[in-house]
Design brief:
By secondary structure, this protein is α/β, with parallel strands linked by helices. The chain contains 10 helices and 10 strands. The chain has one domain: Rossmann fold, CATH 3.40.50. 37% of the residues lie in helices and 26% in strands. The strands form 2 sheets. Strands 6-7-8-3-9-10 form a 6-stranded mixed sheet, sandwiched between helices. Helix 3 runs parallel beside helix 6.
Length: 237
């Protein structure tokens, strides 16, 4: 399956403001990496720049040996990188199933697409039950499941997730946790931006701590969760 990402000297500017300053990291094939930090630390800007949704001021991005430094978002999907945006962004006027099929736009309709759709319904049974319902009528948690399912429809080797637990109840956060752990067990590479530290440390074996647009710390999750500086400064604990 592979799914190895290498990022070097990635920077993002909005006008004269530097949101991300020369960050670098790797996600090995099958590895799960979390990105934590306070609001405004540059986490979402980093993810959006990786996906090609905001301009990159500088930086090198390689995925499975291919240089994607100039690639746009649609190119990223074709190369095997899936993206679950902050705020879900489902198409409320379309049915659940049509939302999912839009995630497979890089693939011609064939047996594999039908198989992938069935796998998404197995992962999220509630989506199968509601396949004919308008996405706008789903609850927040159901829409989050739909957003993840839509990204999985392109059969990615690396999945980028931006705040998947935002606005969800503790029960639904646990449901999302189970799904992400399952994807990790399947060998899918994960890069997770998340305010929920418990979720991040459970899913990601390794973490980056961002501050003021820079990577301030890196380490194993089981070590960072015990670090006094991380708990006090970055997580507010």
């Amino acid at each position: 399956m592979s799914g190895e990402l290498s990022v070097e000297n990635l920077s993002v500017h909005y006008g004269g403001v530097c949101a991300v300053r020369s960050i670098g990291f790797t996600v090995a094939a099958g590895q799960s990496v979390g990105v934590i930090g306070a609001n405004g630390a540059g986490k979402t800007s980093s993810l959006r720049a990786l996906m090609g949704l905001v301009p990159r001021s500088s930086g090198s991005i390689r995925f499975d040996g291919k240089d994607l430094s100039r690639a746009r978002a649609r190119d990223m999907v074709r190369h095997g990188i899936g993206y679950v945006p902050e705020g879900r962004h489902v198409f409320g006027g379309l049915t659940v199933e049509k939302n999912l099929l839009l995630g497979a736009y890089t693939e011609p309709w064939k047996g594999r697409t039908r198989k992938t759709l069935g796998e998404v319904y197995e992962t999220f049974p509630v989506l199968g039950e509601m396949r004919g319902r308008l996405a706008g009528a789903l609850s927040g948690g159901q829409q989050q499941m739909l957003a993840i399912g839509r990204a999985l429809m392109s059969r990615p080797r690396l999945l980028l997730l931006d705040e998947p637990s935002m606005g969800l109840s503790p029960k639904l956060v646990d449901d999302i946790l189970r799904v992400l752990l399952g994807l990790r067990e399947q060998g899918l590479s994960l890069l997770l931006v998340e305010q929920n530290a418990k979720l991040t440390f459970e899913v990601a074996a390794d973490c980056l701590v961002m501050e003021n647009g820079e990577v301030a710390m890196t380490g194993r999750s089981d070590e960072l969760r015990k670090d006094v500086r991380v708990r006090r400064i970055y997580l507010g604990l």
